[in-house]
Specification:
about 200 residues, alpha+beta, Flavocytochrome C3, Chain A, domain 1, 2 domains, four-stranded antiparallel beta sheet, two-stranded antiparallel ribbon, 6 helices, 8 strands, binds flavin-adenine dinucleotide
Length: about 200
């Protein structure tokens, strides 16, 4: 009951732009963990993701990107105005314009009260403006499995612990269920593995 979704977008570019879905709405702080962006894109936004970014931010992001060209997506649409871009992308009329207007209004003061992106990335989006097509940039794999108590006893579907059966790590549905972050697997496995051993020794 847990899915990790990798997102193959360049963090240096994503943080400098805004990610919108197929309705022209932002749905995630662009500077967050890419796995979270992937989960929200694939599972909550129909795998529709477009990075809207102006030329200056794009150039700055590319300069900050590591040498690998793997992530260096090229814009699919380029326009002088948000209205023009919105129309070229086929987004519902007015949606992207409203999103950029609200984003820019707060970015003027280096804030993002809507989604909480860090102040350092909150810069108003100017012109020329472009959009990078990030649809189908997600790849998912499952995590999770057996439900356990905090003492690593495996729970029956009835909710009762099964006597003498313990589990820890990636065969369980632990702290990694919904919202995986790199590193949590080893922490989860070793912490609950130790508790499983202590519980089993007591039994
Ligand atoms: C390339 C890569 C990079 C990763 N990077 C990170 C990272 O940076 N941070 C992080 O937290 N996690 C990372 N992970 C994930 C993490 O390594 C695993 O989630 C974790 O090791 C899982 O531990 P586990 O004890 O649940 O399972 P495993 O480590 O897979 O242990 C299961 C053990 O059971 C044994 N086994 C299988 N079948 C049987 C059987 N029938 N009888 C007896 N023994 C059996 C296997 O040989 C194995 O030793 C990475 C994984 C990969 C593949």
């Amino acid at each position: 009951d847990a899915t990790e979704v990798a997102f193959f977008g360049d963090p240096q570019l994503m943080a400098r732009g805004i990610l919108v879905n197929g309705r022209g709405n932002r749905y995630v702080p662009e500077d967050t963990y890419p796995g979270r962006i992937g989960q929200l894109t694939l599972l909550k936004n129909d795998n529709q993701a477009f990075l809207v970014i102006d030329e200056a931010a794009y150039e700055e992001g590319c300069a900050a990107t590591s040498s690998t060209p793997f992530f260096r997506f090229r814009p699919k649409w380029v326009a002088e105005t948000v209205e023009e871009l919105e129309s070229d992308m086929g987004l519902p009329a007015g949606t992207l314009q409203a999103t950029v207007e609200v984003y820019n209004r707060h970015a003027e003061t280096g804030t993002d009260p809507v989604l909480g992106k860090k102040s350092e990335w909150c810069v108003p989006i100017g012109s020329p403006i472009a959009a990078i097509d990030l649809r189908n940039c997600t790849a998912g794999f499952t995590l999770g499995g057996l439900r356990t108590t905090v003492d690593s006893e495996v729970l029956h579907v009835s909710g009762e612990p099964i006597p003498g059966l313990f589990a820890a790590g990636r065969c369980t549905s632990g702290v990694c269920a919904w919202g995986y972050a790199s590193g949590t697997s080893l922490g989860d496995g070793s912490f609950f593995g130790r508790r499983a051993g202590i519980s089993a020794a007591k039994g």
